[in-house]
Design a protein that fits this description.
about 220 residues, mainly alpha, two-stranded antiparallel ribbon, about 50% helix, elongated
Length: about 220
């Protein structure tokens, strides 16, 4: 049970702060060790918990006393860069911490509400790709639509794209009833084929008419 609590504590720290997961587990383990010594002396667990809460209030008060305001934009965002590099220093990506720290700073500031000192991290998405190198990492200001081109001869790069997002399948409509269509001759098949092709042509014409170059 204690191990599960420590795991949940580490997850909570990672979710709220994004760093310090190892330190919080070490600190909690040390506090539990001291609490066990007090329990062995006959002190009730509730008294110990109350003591921890009072100690927390004292610690928070001391932190508020020594805290100072930092201009995060000063010296080309040096304070933010230092904080990001410190957080990345113990991670597997530490070899590229300067580059990734800059990406993190740019991503956070692009969605941050400075007046409220608040950041909605749901607006930042980390997308991983197999086969690339760590130094290929970059920040994209916009939306990533992770789709492959349907034909190898299509252009790999489309700049200033006018995108049409279809909410319907790009195929002939299927009957929504239980009726079936019997094809009894080659002529009937050709008519059906021509109708399907005409449906495609109408769709393509409508897309061309609206001026889009990416579907």
């Amino acid at each position: 049970h204690i191990a599960k609590l420590l795991v949940d504590l580490s997850k909570s720290q990672d979710h709220e702060i994004g760093d310090g997961t190892t330190g919080i587990v070490v600190m909690a383990g040390s506090m539990l060790e001291r609490a066990m010594e007090l329990i062995e002396k006959g002190i009730h667990p509730l008294r110990i918990a109350t003591g921890f809460e009072k100690a927390c209030d004292v610690a928070v008060k001391k932190v508020e006393e020594i805290a100072r305001k930092v201009d995060i934009m000063a010296d080309d965002k040096a304070a933010l860069r230092k904080a990001a590099c410190t957080a990345l220093g113990s991670k597997v990506v530490s070899s590229r911490q300067q580059q990734l720290a800059q990406i993190c700073i740019d991503a956070v500031l692009s969605v941050a509400d400075i007046s409220r000192s608040d950041v909605n991290f749901d607006l930042i998405k980390v997308e991983g790709k197999v086969g690339g190198k760590l130094e290929d990492s970059c920040l994209i200001n916009g939306i990533i639509v992770d789709k492959d081109f349907s034909h190898p001869q299509m252009p790999k790069v489309v700049k200033d794209a006018k995108m049409a997002i279809l909410t319907c399948p790009f195929e002939p409509p299927k009957p929504k009833t239980k009726h079936k269509l019997d094809i009894r001759s080659a002529e009937d098949y050709k008519k059906l084929y021509e109708n399907e092709q005409q449906y495609f042509r109408d769709q393509i014409q409508a897309l061309k008419k609206c001026g889009c170059n990416l579907v």
